[in-house]
Amino acid sequence: MNAIMRSVLRYIFLGAGTLLVTLGVALGALHTVTVHAQTISCNTPEEKAACQKQYDELQAEIAQQQQIINQTEAQKNTYKGNVTNLTAQIKQAQAQIDAKNLQIKQLGSQISQKTVVITQLQSRINAGHDSLASMLRQQQQIDDYSPVEVALSSDDLSSFFADVDAFTSIEDNMQALFSDIKSNKAATEDQKAQLAQAQASTADAKYDIQTKQNKISQDKTAQQQLLNVATANEAAQQKVLAAQQAKAAAIRAALFPLRDAAAIQFGTALQYAQQSQKSTGVDPALVLAILTQESNLGANVGQCYLSNDATGAGNGKNTGTPFANVMSPTRDVPPFLALASALGFDPHHQVVSCPIAGAGGWGGAMGPAQFIASTWSLYASRIASIDGVAVANPWDPRDAITAMSLFLEDLGAGAGGYTAEHTAAAKYYAGAGWATAGQAYANQVMAKVQGIQQNIDFLANNS
Q1: In degrees rounded to 5, what are phi and psi of residue 205?
Q2: Helix, strand and coil percent figures for the chain, each rounded to 5
Q3: Strand (E) or helix (H) holding 250
Q4: Which partner for 332 in 328, 344, 446, 460 could form a disulfide, CB atoms 3.0-4.6 Å apart?
Q5: Tens of pLDDT along 100-117?
Q6: pLDDT tens digits, residue range 240-279?
Q7: Which of 93, 91, 86, 94 has the alpha carbon at shortest distance from 227?
C-alpha cells in the first residue's frame, strides 16, 4: 500500500509541476501582449515595425498639412487661398483616415492576441481541474482506509502520514494556482473588452473625419469653380452663383417621398427634422435617410385595410386580397380604434401596412414612420407636446418625423457617431433581431445618409 501511495503522489506531484510550467508560459504570453499594447504593434515583428513606421509617416504628413493650412490662413479671403487651404485640409483628413485605419488594424491584432491568451489560460484551468479530480479520487481512497488497514499495510506509519500531508499540501497549492490563473484570465478578458471599445471609438472617429472630408471636397469644388470664373470675368462668376442658387432652390423644392402619405418638399422635410433635432439631438440626415428607406420598402409591402376588429384580418387596398394578420387584435386594434375616434377617420378605410409575405407576424404599421398603433400610443403625448397639436397623427409628415426622431433617440442615435446611428437604424427595423436581421437595412440607411447630408450642406452654404 505504501508503494502504491508513493506512486500516486509522485504522479500528482509531476502533474502539478507541469501545470506550473504551463502557467509560466501563459503568463509570459500575457506579458508579451501587454508590451504590445503599449507599443501598438500589428502581428509579426516585421509587420509591427512597418506599421509603426507607417503611422509615424502619417503623423508627419498631418503636421505638414497643418502647417500649410496655417500658412494659407491669411489668404482665406481670396478664392486661390481658399482652394489651397481646402486642398491641404483634404490631404490632412485623408492622412487622419489612414491613421485611423491603421489603429483599427492594430487594435484588431491586439484583440486576437488577447483571445489566444484567454484560450490558453482556459486550457490550463481545464487541465488543472482534471489533475485535481484525480487527487480527490485518491483522497477518497485514503479516507476509505481504516486505522487497522493502515497499520497492517504500511511498512512505515510515519512515512504513510507524511505522504498524506504532502498530498494535502499539493492540493492546497493547486487551488491557489487555479485562483491565480482565473484572476489572470479575468484581467485579460477585461483588457480585450477595453480594446474592442477603443476599436469602436476609432471607427466612429474615422467616420466623422470621412464626413468632414466629403464636405471639404464639396467646398473645394465650389471654390475652384469660383476661382476659374473670377479669372475670366465678373459676368461668368455671377452665372455660376446663379446656377448654385438655382440648384439650391431645386433641392428645396424637390418632392420628398413618404410612405402611405403624400410627398412633401425636401426643404419642408428637412425643416421638420431640424426642429425635432432640437428636442432629441438626432441627426436630420439619419431621419430623412430612414424615411427614404421606408418609402422604398413601402412599394414592396403594399397597403391594407383592417376589416375585422375581433381577428385583425383585412384586405389589400387596391387588390382586395384577404390577409389574416393585418393587425394584432389584442395589441394594436384597441389603440388603433381609439386613435380613429380621436382623429375622426374610418378605421376600416385607413391605410396601414400589409404583413410581409413569408416573414410571419402582423402588419398594421401606420404612416411614413411605420409605427404600429401600440407603439404610437406610447409616443403620442410627447409628439403632441413638441409639435403643439392636440392629437398626434401618424399620417401627418411633421408628426411622423417627430415620432421617428424620438424613437431613434431612445434607441441611442442621439449620441451621434457612425456606430450609434448604425445600431439605432438596425434596431428601428428589426428590434431585438437588430444584430442579424437589421444589418442590411442599417447599411442601406447609412449609405443614404451621406448623400442627404451633402444636399443639407449645399443648402446651408447657398441659403
Answers
A1: -65, -40
A2: 75, 5, 20
A3: helix 234-253
A4: 328
A5: 888 888 888 888 887 888
A6: 666 766 766 666 666 778 888 888 888 999 999 999 999 9
A7: 86
Residues with Cβ within 8 Å of residue 439, at least 6 apart in sequence: 426
Strand partners, 221: none
Burial class for 42, CB neighbours closer than 10 Å (0-12, 13-18, 19+):
buried
Nine-digit cell at 435?
A: 444584430
pTM (2 d.p.):
0.58
CB 43: neighbour CB atoms within 10 A? 15
Separation of alpha carbons 463 and 450, rounded Å: 20
Give the Å distances, CA to CA, from 447 to 90, 211, 293, 386, 414.
Answer: 21, 12, 10, 29, 19
Give the Cβ contact number of residue 321 at 10 Å: 12
Whose grid coordinates read 393585418?
326
Tens-digit pLDDT profile for residues 400-417: 999 999 999 999 999 999
Q: How confident is the model at residue 6 (pLDDT cuts 50, 70, 90)?
A: very low
Residues in the chain: 463
Single out the residue of 379, 163, 183, 165 nearest to residue 279, CA to CA. Answer: 379
Residue 127 burial (CB < 10 Å; 0-12/13-18/19+)?
middle
User: From start to end of 236-297, where are the E strands?
Assistant: 255-258, 261-265
- HSE toward the beta carbon, residue 280, CA cutoff 13 A: 30
Q: What angle do CA 191, 127, 195 make, to 5 degrees?
A: 10
Residue 211 and residue 134: Cα distance in Å, rounded?
Answer: 61
**Could you tell me the pLDDT band of residue 22, with boundaries at 50, 70 and 90?**
very low
CA distances from 386 to 95, 267, 278, 389 (A): 43, 20, 10, 8
User: How far apart (Å, rounded) are the C-alpha atoms in residues 19 and 13?
Assistant: 10
Give the pairing type, strands 352-353 and 322-323.
unpaired
**Other beta carbons within 10 Å of 7:** 10
DSSP E strand stretches across 36-162: none
409, 282 Cβ separation under 8 angstroms: yes
What nine digits make up the cell of 21? 510550467
Angstrom distance (rounded) from CA 402 to CA 120: 52
Q: How far apart are CA 267 and CA 194, in angstroms?
A: 43
3-state SS class at 327? coil
